[in-house]
Design brief:
The complex is a heterodimer.
Chain A lengths: L2 E12 L7 E12 L3 E5 L6 H8 L7 E9 L10 E4 L13 H13 L3 H14 L5 H6 L7 H13 L5 E5 L7 H18 L2 E6 L2 H5 L4 E6 L2 E6 L1 H6 L4 H13 L2
Parallel strand pairs in A: 3-7, 3-8, 5-6, 6-7
Antiparallel strand pairs in A: 1-2, 1-4, 8-9
Helix pairs in contact in A: 2-3, 2-5, 3-5, 5-6
Chain B lengths: L4 E12 L2 E13 L4 E5 L6 H8 L7 E6 L2 E2 L5 H8 L2 E4 L13 H12 L4 H14 L16 H13 L5 E5 L7 H18 L2 E6 L2 H7 L2 E6 L2 E7 H6 L4 H9 L9
Parallel strand pairs in B: 3-8, 3-9, 6-7, 7-8
Antiparallel strand pairs in B: 1-2, 1-4, 4-5, 9-10
Helix pairs in contact in B: 3-4, 3-5, 4-5, 5-6
Classes of the chains: A alpha/beta, B alpha/beta.
């Protein structure tokens, strides 16, 4: 697989807030490959979301980056080359606009289409994320949709710029398990079909072991280890990874 | 043995657009002392409505709820308040259940003040005991709840529920918002507290992985009705209804073997 990005001694610190600047991410060496499904796994405070935001150039202004983040090609433009889905889909949808308008705007800006074409492409996108009756959904406001429908709409908006990379940060943590399984299957099949790179952030190592090509385990801002699911699940090199697996065995299947 | 909680024919509809939409339809179940019954179902199946009905935060349209042999739907407000000492509820989001500026000790002491006749000095001692029981560092007692992690907040919520020595706690998606590893710790804590105090749990969740970890029996809800019930083992191994089968299939599994 072609290399997409190389991180060397990469770190992020959040400044201010009275305390000394807190190191959210420290000394990360990681290669990301074009077209792979890479899972970033860890608990709250592990730095996994900070890394996702850094990849997407979405770090807040009080964040300071150090080390190197070297893209093979030019740095991707947020919203266009790189799409995001967050845990709370409400955050990426305008509450007072029909969801179809929100998606169509991304299509117009990033795919340079006129209004009519953008709306037609929006309906195709809503169909691709397997929402029944795309025309009705396009006219709906976010609050009129269920949590699962909203996350599918957010996914359609993330794909609207025709990105090469999709970053999904805990996209199913607020959903029930049945809806979660359906949304995971959808993300997996859409990214596979389009040959996109998927960067999927989760606290659930079992969930990502079902579809990731590689799993990177984070703890307290550091990369603990990275490997294929078989390596990570069957031959974890670190005690912390074994701890995450044991936790799953206690509360999963 | 007489059940601790006996729910019969419970029914509730909500008004939406001028007509009644049924949320809970003719639901019956019981729970014995020191037992854990899980109510499992997808979003919108009526399980959170049931949690609120059983604790009488909302009133049903029909049916009866016998708790410790008393029909709680007939209790006057004052008697119901007294009953709440033994019938507690813990919600999914521990943040929203507290005054965010309250300290840990204050949140627990308030529950003691409402439900017990303890003096201020006794309350202080009891808060320390409760923090110890839920394995929270006593140094956190004067911290604001806002400063705690999600797992720590849920420990405070459990300590507060335990403060009035309940015989039943309704846990409404109480571990759903937590990381897997923190979830495992909280379930472990709940099981230990049950062994120590014989408290019963009505555990509301959409996650059969959690059910496997904690429940004795399971009732599967869909569209406001119980569609299947049995032991946790039975339901997970041989789910009969399409709802239960979908819930079993949806639990994330560790990749089982090298592919």
């Amino acid at each position: 697989m072609r290399r997409l990005l190389q991180l060397k001694e990469f770190g992020v610190a959040y400044e201010g807030g009275g305390d000394n600047s807190a190191l959210a991410l420290e000394a990360v060496d990681l290669e990301i490959r074009a077209g792979e499904k890479l899972a970033l796994v860890g608990e709250s405070g592990s730095g996994k979301t900070t890394l996702a935001l850094a990849l997407a150039s979405l770090l807040p202004s009080h964040a300071r980056r150090f080390g190197t983040m070297a893209w093979e090609a030019s740095e991707p433009r947020p919203g266009g080359d790189i799409g995001f889905v967050f845990q709370d889909p409400g955050g990426s949808l305008n509450p007072v606009r029909p969801v179809g308008d929100t998606i169509a705007e991304v299509v117009r800006i990033h795919r340079h289409q006129d209004r009519r074409t953008a709306m037609r492409m929006t309906l195709t996108l809503l169909d691709q994320v397997r929402l029944p009756d795309p025309e009705r959904i396009a006219r709906a406001y976010p609050h009129q949709l269920s949590g699962g429908q909203r996350q599918r709409v957010a996914l359609a908006a993330a794909l609207a710029g025709d990105p090469k990379i999709l970053v999904a940060d805990e996209p199913t943590s607020a959903l029930d398990t049945v809806v979660q399984a359906a949304v995971i299957e959808l993300i997996q099949s859409l990214t596979t079909t389009a040959g996109m790179t998927l960067i999927f952030i989760s606290h659930d190592i079992a969930l990502v072991s079902e579809f990731a090509d590689r799993i990177a385990v984070f703890r307290s801002g550091r990369l603990v280890e990275v490997g294929t699911p078989d390596e990570i699940i069957f031959a974890p090199g670190q005690a912390y990874t074994r701890h995450l697996i044991e936790a799953h065995r206690a509360v999963g299947f | 043995m007489r059940p601790l909680l006996q729910v019969s024919g419970l029914t509730k509809a909500f008004k939406r657009g001028g007509r009644g939409v049924p949320a809970v339809q003719d639901v019956s179940f019981d729970i014995g002392p020191a037992e854990t019954l899980a109510l499992v179902g997808p979003s919108g199946s009526g399980k959170s409505t049931l949690a609120r009905l059983v604790t009488r935060l909302i009133e049903p349209d029909g049916g009866s709820i016998l708790f410790e042999g008393e029909d709680i739907l007939r209790l006057k407000p004052k008697a119901m308040r007294a009953m709440r000492a033994r019938l507690q509820i813990v919600f999914q989001d521990p943040g929203s259940a507290f005054n965010p500026r309250a300290t840990v000790s204050r949140a627990i002491a308030d529950s003691l003040k409402i439900h017990t006749g303890f003096s201020q000095g006794e309350r202080r001692t009891r808060v320390r005991d409760l923090l110890e029981r839920v394995r929270l560092n006593p140094d956190l007692a004067e911290r604001s709840i806002h400063d705690l992690s999600g797992g720590q907040r849920q420990r405070v919520a459990i300590a507060r529920a335990m403060a009035s020595s309940p015989t039943l706690i309704v846990l409404d998606e109480a571990v759903s918002a937590l990381d897997v590893s923190v979830r495992a710790e909280i379930l472990h804590l709940l099981k230990r507290l049950q062994r120590e105090t014989r408290v019963a749990y009505l555990f509301i969740t959409h996650d059969l992985g959690v059910v496997r970890a904690i429940a004795d029996r399971v009732a599967v809800l869909d569209d406001g009705r119980i569609v299947e019930h049995g032991s946790a083992q039975e339901i997970i191994a041989t789910p009969q209804s399409p709802t239960a089968q979908a819930l079993v299939a949806a639990v994330p599994r560790l990749r089982l073997q090298a592919q």
